[in-house]
Amino acid sequence: MVFGEILQAAYQLMTDVFGNYVIQKFFEFGSADQKLALATRIRGHVLPLALQMYGCRVIQKALESISSDQQVISDIVRELDGHVLKCVKDQNGNHVVQKCIECVQPQALQFIIDAFQGQVFVLSTHPYGCRVIQRILEHCTQEQTLPILEELHQHSEQLGQKYQGVSLEMTPKTYYTVSSDALFKDQYGNYVIQHVLEHGRPEDKSKIVAEVNVVEKCVIHSSRAERALLIDEVCCQKDGPHSALYTMMKDQYANYVVQRMIDMAEPAQRKIIMHKIRPHIATLRKYTYGKHILAKLEKYYMKSGADLGPIGGPTNGLM
């Protein structure tokens, strides 16, 4: 009885400050027939609903709740074709695009990937676009993420060329570093970089690691609060041989970032870094660049006293 009355005013309720919650609850707890009946009321109105403060919530709930019926989902998603960038840059619409990527089969989302062609760098530095790029890296196929990653790299190289001739002292490596600086230091682009490190191919990760001298500059020249966040980002990753800190310590470039973090960290944060490094001491001795970290650690161990215990371990080689 309740549903019968609601269905008659479904679209009006979807865009209402209070009514949208009732529609969402029917998508969440209603029968399969009720969910499909409400979905039919969305059809033909997906774009205006996606851009509306309350309607965007209804579409997101619908995508979550009727995901088992891929045909219905495809019909809803298809209405965004031709309007992807408009939605991605909208404070409401971007959430709908993200939910599409999370809930819909990647094969039905190729039009979203196509819409990003030539726009990847701009969207990566956009407050809403960077979120959508992250969802693509998380959920789409390798074939779909490849052009996204390639465009990020290509754009960096093109930007680098702009700086040629600015100074005779600038080397080719400097050009690339200057261009990459935009994404590393951008308040939104840095999240995309983090997702590339997490979800990209080995070659994508290597390109970023090769540019971490930019991060080293960030550690040196950032404010105390910003520096603390950067260090915390590294230290809060999972521990073990696959942790970000461990990978950086034995890398020919990234070890310098860790050294700068040790140098620039506040005492309490430096102590955390030292505790994180200690389990890897035996392994780091085997790496040329790991030894640099151990030397830095020894320096601060001598300054801070014995509260961490001897970092070199017993003379018998046991930890």
Automatic annotation (TrEMBL):
InterPro entries: ARM-like, ARM-type_fold, PUM-HD, Pumilio_RNA-bd, Pumilio_RNA-bd_rpt. Keywords: Repeat. Residues 1-301 form the PUM-HD domain. Pfam families: PUF. GO terms for biological process: miRNA processing; regulation of mRNA stability. One of its GO terms (cellular component) is cytosol. It comes from the Eukaryota. GO terms for molecular function: mRNA 3'-UTR binding. The keyword Repeat applies. Pumilio repeats lie at residues 5-40, 41-78, 79-114, 115-150, 175-210, 233-275. This is PUM-HD domain-containing protein. It comes from Muraenolepis orangiensis (Patagonian moray cod).
